Amino acid sequence: MISAKNDPTHNVIELRLPSQAEWVGVARLAIAGIASRLDFGIEDIEDLKLAVAEAYTNCIQHAASDGEVRIECAIHPDKLVIAVHDQGKGFNGAEIAPRKLGEPQERGLGVFLIRTLMDDVSYEVDPRRGTRLTMIKHVRPQQPAQ
Amino acid sequence: MISAKNDPTHNVIELRLPSQAEWVGVARLAIAGIASRLDFGIEDIEDLKLAVAEAYTNCIQHAASDGEVRIECAIHPDKLVIAVHDQGKGFNGAEIAPRKLGEPQERGLGVFLIRTLMDDVSYEVDPRRGTRLTMIKHVRPQQPAQ
Amino acid sequence: MDINVDVKEIPGKNGVRVVDLNGEIDVYTSPRVKETIGELIDQGHYDLIINLENVRYIDSTGLGVLIGGLKRVREHSGTVSLVCTNPQIKKIFDITGLVKIFGIYDSEASASAAL
Amino acid sequence: MDINVDVKEIPGKNGVRVVDLNGEIDVYTSPRVKETIGELIDQGHYDLIINLENVRYIDSTGLGVLIGGLKRVREHSGTVSLVCTNPQIKKIFDITGLVKIFGIYDSEASASAAL
Ligand SMILES: Nc1ncnc2c1ncn2[C@@H]1O[C@H](COP(=O)(O)OP(=O)(O)O)[C@@H](O)[C@H]1O
Ligand SMILES: Nc1ncnc2c1ncn2[C@@H]1O[C@H](COP(=O)(O)OP(=O)(O)O)[C@@H](O)[C@H]1O
Predict the structure, then answer these.
(1) What is the CATH number of the domain that holds D92?
(2) C30: Cβ–Cβ under 8 A, 6 or more apart, which residues?
(3) How far does residue C61's CA lie from ligand 2's centre (Å)?
(4) C109: Cβ contacts below 8 Å, ≥ 6 apart
(5) Do chains C and D touch (3 or more CB pairs under 8 A)?
(6) How many other CB atoms are there within 10 angstroms of residue B102's CB atom?
(7) Which of B11, B13, B23 sits opposite A13 (nearest CB)?
(8) C1 at the B interface (CB within 8 A)?
(9) Which sign, positive or negative, has the C-alpha torsion A6, A10, A13, A19?
(10) Which amino acid residue places its CA nearest to atom 18 of ligand 1?
(11) Fewest CB atoms within 10 Å of the CB: A53, A114, C61, D2?
(12) What is the nearest CA distance from B33 to chain C, expressed in angstroms?
């Protein structure tokens, strides 16, 4: 596990939140604050808010309707590495059907958005201890507003 | 320690942040989000942001310039109980000189503001394990904007 | 972090309803949007304009509510038109391909004119 | 979460400097404010107007910077006037008793007229 104690070259901010819908907005605010301290542009900050909220939402909807969700942000000068853990039953990946673009499918949007908005995404699933989603976004030179 | 597991009647949100000035704004954003989910009015939300920021700032300035600050928010329907812990050397209370109102004193404003803005404030100091400041703010019927 | 939901009629457009949303649509607030859209369809309103001009944020649960509404009105040959000007929200409809299944307009007037 | 610091002159008020602050003043940003005020005093400007109209947040480190500046200009019979309209910020000056040691004004014009 990434920890400030093991690796003094970067900072870690951790949030522990109830696995409940009403607190997702708090995670978004915190992520926006963290991202704005790095050199992320406005669009990247919105991407980060959405990706983290989607990950947290999946913990609430699919992992456990109580318990705790942990969001760990490892802050590097050039990237943000965010891990979202839950204490749920996990899943095997087969549940993630590929999205057919242009069809009105209600499901499968969350993981699709996370994969699209973040640079690197990986799941570690342990049926006894829950799911850990790690996602990375690199700081890019800011694009001028469109 | 207050924990959602010991007491299922309330939620706990915990933030672990580096003991560094640049992250105080993230704590303010998170507290504002938490407080706005309860029924706190705008003025009380500003009070909470300031009190938590002052507590965090004291950890940074007086406890340890590295290490971790933990902000634990126990969310009750009628109150928010916030504990701010550091891993610093602690202090004995004599450092907190009473403020003389109307004199240009630069020091001692932080603890004074915390005590003024929050309903209940207490320190537990352990020179080996650091300082834990617990502060409570009750949810009041919202006053009309002035 | 909250949502305001208002429903309006459009003069001269019988049966059409505008759902005016203001705030953020996420896993916490989208049930309220879903309820309003569901009630309108239950009442027989199959042409809906969802005004997202004052929506600062939408997540997949919000998109799911819009898609679910679209599916239901389509059974009655109805439509769901979206009014959307925020570039970040437009981007979400783009990357999910939902631009292809919703009519997306720059103003309530143009959404209504297209009906 | 950040601060913008600008310095302006006032036509006809020789030597007076306005420090225009925009954003949030906290433990992270107040060193920048302190530096600007310190430089102005070093340059011999002892009558300062600090415009807090666009400051949304100030904490004790920000107050400390203002008090420190006041102490230094007082050695030269100078003044620090604050322009402050935000009720939350005003409240902080009230409860700390700092209203009694700073001149606090509703606009830059009235702060400047009082000099
Ligand atoms: N943290 C998690 N715990 C358990 N299952 C998960 C988790 N995250 C994602 N999944 C699985 O992946 C599927 C796809 O998720 P997503 O793309 O967000 O769409 P949706 O939530 O609408 O089904 C979910 O239906 C679920 O089966
Ligand atoms: N977390 C802490 N660890 C160690 N000392 C503390 C802590 N919080 C407060 N103090 C002590 O209390 C004093 C008063 O704090 P405060 O009112 O914020 O004013 P200031 O920080 O300007 O001195 C500090 O100077 C310090 O000695």
Answers:
(1) 3.30.750.24
(2) C3, C59, C61, C62, C64, C65
(3) 45
(4) none
(5) no
(6) 12
(7) B23
(8) yes
(9) negative
(10) A110
(11) D2
(12) 8
Alpha-carbon span A127 to A88, nearest angstrom:
7
Query: What is the reported pTM?
Result: 0.92
| C67 to A113: CB separation less than 8 angstroms, yes or no | no
Please give the single-letter amino acid code of residue C11. P
Q: How far is the CA of B98 from the centre of ligand 2 (A)?
A: 12
Which DSSP symbol is given to A21? G
Note the pLDDT tens digit of each residue in B50-84: 999 999 999 999 997 779 999 999 999 999 999 99
**Number of structural domains in chain C:** 1
pLDDT tens digits, one per residue of D43-52: 999 999 999 9
Nearest-by-Cβ selection for A26 from B18, B25, B30? B30
Q: Which structural domains are found in chain A, ordered by start?
A: 2-138 (3.30.565.10)
ipTM: 0.93
Which atom in ligand 2 lies closest to the alpha carbon of residue B54?
18
Across the interface, which of B25, B53, B146 has its CB nearest the CB of D87? B146
Which range marks the domain in which residue C59 is found?
3-113
Q: Exposure of D80 by Cβ count < 10 A (0-12 exposed, 13-18 middle, 19+ buried)?
A: buried
Beta carbon of B58 within 6 Å of any ligand 2 atom: yes
Within the 30-69 window of chain A, which residues sit less than 8 Å (CB to CB) from chain D? 33, 36-37
Q: How many CB atoms lie within 10 A of CB A17?
A: 25
Q: Tell how far CA B1 is from the center of its chain.
A: 16
